[in-house]
Every structure is written in C-alpha cells, then in structure tokens.
Amino acid sequence: MKQPHSSISYSSFLRKIRFSPFLFTFLLFLVLFSLLYGEDVTHFFAQEGQQNLDQPIPRLAKKKREKLPFAIGGIERDCDVFSGRWVWDELARPLYEESDCPYIQPQLTCQERGRPDKDYQYWRWQPYGCSLPSFNATLMLETLRGKRMMFVGDSLNRGQFTSLICLLHSVIPKHAKSMETFDSLTVFTAKDYNATIEFYWAPFLLESNSDNAIVHRISDRIVREGSIDKHGRFWKEVDILVFNTYLWWMTGLKMKILQGQGSFTDEVENIVELSTEDAYGMAIKDMLQWVQHNMDTKKTRVFFTSMSPSHQKSIDWGGEPGGNCYNETTMIKDPTYWGSDCRKSIMRVLREVLDETEVPITFLNITQLSNYRKDAHTSIYKKQWNPLTPEQLANPASYADCVHWCLPGLQDTWNELLFAKLFYQ
Q: What's the whole-model pTM score?
C-alpha cells in the first residue's frame, strides 16, 4: 500500500535532499566557528536572558580561557567556587588562633574583647561543584619571593590584608618579618623572601576628602573626577593587586564629584552631583584604565573584591524590628537571602563594566556567601575609640559594628578563594 505523503520515511527524505556547494561550505563554516568560539557564541545568545536586573549576582561574560600569571593548575571548568554552602568543620577550622596572630587590629579581636562564643570560627565554605584547594602558606610565599602584593581600598580590604598575613606569618621566623605604616600605606615584609604584602588606604580608589588614613569619618563625602593617579603612583610595580570599593559610596542616591584642580573646600560651582551608580561606574572604569596603562598583565594579576555585606536590619532575615547583628550567633539558612544593604544596582554596574573590558581582571564574588554570615561580625566585641554613654550601654545594638568581621573568621575564606583563583584560575 502506498504511504501517504505525510508519512514519508526519514531515509527517503534524506535521499531527496541536494546540498549545493554554497550550502555545504556555509554549514562547514558554522561548525568550525562554533568549535573555536563556542563559549563566546553561547554568551552572546544568552545575554538577553541575563538582563534580569533583579538578579543579585552579576553574570560576567566568559572570557577566552588562557593561563594567567602565577597559575599552576585548574579548578573544574564548570565549577563556580563562589556558589556553595557553609559546612561545619571543627577539624580544619579555624585556620589560626586569634591569640597567635599579633597583627590583628583591636577592632577585629573579638575573643580578646569578650565575645563568649566561637562557633563563627568553625564554618568552611564548600562549593557545590568542587572543593577549594587547601591554603598553602609556603607556596604563597615562594610565589611572592622578590615581589609585591597590595590590597587597595577601605577597611574591609584591610581586614582581608590582615587575614592573609595571619595565614602566612606562622611559617616565617620572628626575626624575618616586620610591619610598618607610612601614612596611607602599611607594609608587611617577609625578609627571607624579599617579599612585601601591603595595604593602601583609598576607600574610593579616586582622590577624595576621606583619604586621611586615620581621620576620615566625613559625612559629606566628595570624590575628585579623573584623579586615580593621585593614589595610583603608589601602586606601580606591584605584582598582585587586590582592589575593593563599595561601602564609602553608600551615602545616599547621589554622590558629589569635584571637577578640575580646585580643593575640596572650593565654592560649590566646582562640584556636580551624579547618581551613586554613575559615580561608582566612573571609578571602576578609571581603575581598569589605570591597570591597562600601568601594569603588564602578562606578568601580573589584578583582582577586584565585590561588596562586603553588612547586617544592620534584622527584619531583613525575619528578626525583630530595630535589631541588627548584635547577639546573632547563627547564620542565615535561606540560600536566596540578599540583604537590603547590598545595592543590586551597584552589582549591575560591576557586571556591565567588567563584561565590557578587555583587561584581565579576576572578580572575587564574595557577596552572596558573606550575606549568610550575620554571625561573623565584630558586633560589640571590639575596641571602642570613645567612651560608651549610659544610653549605649543600655542598648548594645546601638553601637554594634555590623560592617567589619572578626578574625579568624569569614575573611579567611575570602583569602582561600583568592588563593584558589590566583593559582588555579
């Protein structure tokens, strides 16, 4: 019985096809193009779906995978080390004892200042698709032999700088290390390695009226346009740079920008206001331009650490109104939690600027994993620079520091991630 036309067999259909030489050549080109540039093609067609502006974590474009300076291996290709969960680990945590690291600032020594619990020290970050390589202090120091590593940014970057020193100093003899401060620059030296790990205070990266490393609590903050070289001259000849900037921009919806060469006390006509997002984007673009002009990216590495969350409003995680991180000893379990203090519009700016750049910068996306850790802040367990009032003593939440982190603690994980991305891309 003759088959209906609609039931024609697949083999019969193929026999009816006639490929023209042009069509064959075009299909062959598509196959070769996809093999060579598959990741970029996938990203191009996926970008429309990535434009969900409510997505908290920026989906940065996948750049062509090349071996970067200092890399010695690779993490599983599809493993996102910033996506995972916190696991309890009393055997491997903490990575050092607070009392064994003399370099921790008194603002971060929570146990010394009377914190009664230590549970916040025993959590280890576990990515879903792989395991983080163990931090190796000797490998880090050998890599830094004859080199400079520098953290540039605000006090949160200083905390990460301090954490790294605590992770390294125990393998360095006492006579072979030193710490010195020169205005905005703090330098830890590992003498036998001729290596330095440094911190440079520049909370906006650009020049600002908050640049004094000691006296900088200014509510009316002003940033000078196009002024990154003012600080950047101290970053030249550094081999590994770790930037951060976020918290100091969060003064409202607008940011004051000083134009020209006048002083920060000049008349108001020299100052314009930009949206915080536009001002922040300006600073990130200036940072990338500075890296492009001043660093040999074939021999050096540049990192940017995303925003560090604070936990100022307990209602964000279902707590009582008026509360904050004070007396919080457990983490947030909701995997989708995103605190109101982490401005998504700023993450959006980072995504857009870093997607567009050709500068090879490694993004340390610590925001989501840190969002869960309302338990890890210094809270009231830190040195208080001014005597507390009776009103404050009666309400500890009123003076709790829900911005900075106890050491040892969360910021050691940031450095484990930095170590993983430095050596294993």
A: 0.84
What does the H/E/C string look like for the chain? CCCCHHHCCHHHHHHHCCCCHHHHHHHHHHHHHHHHHHHHHHHHHHHHHHHCCCCCCCCCCCCCCCCCCCCCCCCCCCCCCCCEEEEECCCCCCCCCHHHCCCCCCCCCCCCCCCCCCHHHCEEEEECCCCCCCCCHHHHHHHCCCCEEEEEECHHHHHHHHHHHHHHHHHCCHHHEEEEEECCEEEEEEHHHCEEEEEEECCCCCCECCCCCCCCCCCCCEEECCCHHHHHCCCCCCCEEEECCCHHHCCCCEEEEECCCCCCCCCHHHEEEEEHHHHHHHHHHHHHHHHHHHCCCCCCEEEEECCCCCCCCHHHHCCCCCCCCCCCCCCCCCCCCCCCCCCHHHHHHHHHHHHHCCCCEEEECCHHHHHCCCCCEEECCCCCCCCCCHHHHHCHHHHCEEEEECCCCHHHHHHHHHHHHHHHC
Extract the tokens encoding 84: 């995972």
Which of 149, 146, 101, 90 lies closest to 123, judged by CA?
A: 90
Partners of 222 in the β-ladder: 256
**Omega within 30 of 0 (cis) for the link into 94:** yes
Q: Which of 184, 136, 208 is nearest to 420 (CA)?
A: 136
Q: Nearest 5°: phi and psi at 170?
A: -65, -20
Q: How far apart are CA 138 and CA 93, in angstroms?
A: 19
Q: Which residues are catalytic?
A: 155, 401, 404
pLDDT (tens, 9 = 90+) of the chain, 425 residues, equals 434 443 334 344 334 334 444 444 555 444 444 444 443 433 333 333 333 334 444 545 455 557 788 888 777 667 899 999 999 999 999 999 999 999 999 999 999 999 999 999 999 999 998 999 999 999 999 999 999 999 999 999 999 999 999 999 999 999 999 999 999 999 999 999 999 999 999 999 999 989 987 777 777 899 999 999 999 999 999 999 999 999 999 988 899 999 887 777 776 668 899 999 999 999 999 999 999 999 998 999 999 999 999 999 999 999 999 999 999 999 999 999 999 999 999 999 999 999 999 999 999 999 999 999 999 999 999 999 889 999 999 999 999 999 999 999 999 999 999 999 999 87
- Whether cis (ω within 30° of 0) applies to the bond prior to 321 is no
What residue type is 60 in one-letter code?
L
